[in-house]
Design a protein that fits this description.
The model has no long low-confidence stretch (mean pLDDT 90). The chain is an alpha+beta fold. Helix content is 38%, strand content 22%. It is built from 6 helices and 7 strands. The radius of gyration is 17 Å and the shape is globular. The longest helix is centred in the first third of the chain and has 22 residues.
Length: 236
Amino acid sequence: PRRRRAQSSTRPRQAHVANGRARVEALDTFQGRVRNGQGLDSTNGCAVIAPLVCHQHVTAKDARGATNAQVSKLIDSIVPPILAHIRQKHGLGSGAFIIPADVHDYLYDAKAIDEKMFDGVHGGNVLDAAHLGNLLSAFEQIPATHRAACAFFFKEHVTAILRVGGAYHFIDSMPGEHPSRMGTRTVCADVDVLRCHLMTYATKKLPAAVDGREWNDMTAEFDPRVFQAFLWKNQT
């Protein structure tokens, strides 16, 4: 079953890449690559990186929103001190993973992000077309006069999805499939290409044991298929 699931998502994505409807761009860095003068870096900082990339995008002046250069600067220079402060506040050691909800609370309190831009939380089983569809529909329903983005939490990693016109850009601060082995920006031509990309992304991370397992909302927190997405918008 897992092999069939992988093939059903990978083949269409390969076709999208071949026909130019999806492409992978390299960032100039990845999380944890650069250590600043205080000895701080962004290792395991995706829970801070992703929402700040989203905020950077929905408030950006550039037509593309958050540019690759801006995202790279954020990862290397802006995130490390914020990450260290949040870890200290929660009594966590250097390099510890942080819960995304705690990060959002901190960023609200620090006025680093504007809660008026928050558009809700979506989640569920990433392999369930209806659950994932709820997030994608919410994205599509945000007026074209607004920028939109979400922090996508799955398998203890947080990525950012940015809406750019009718396209969607998937930002991953971890080294990805690009030959540079830097962080990546996967540009998806529309929401259907994004849906395909997300299924491919999720399938690669999931164990075969989840196939055929019944979904239960009561135990979703412990299910490897669970995702959570924090959606943002801002009128341009």
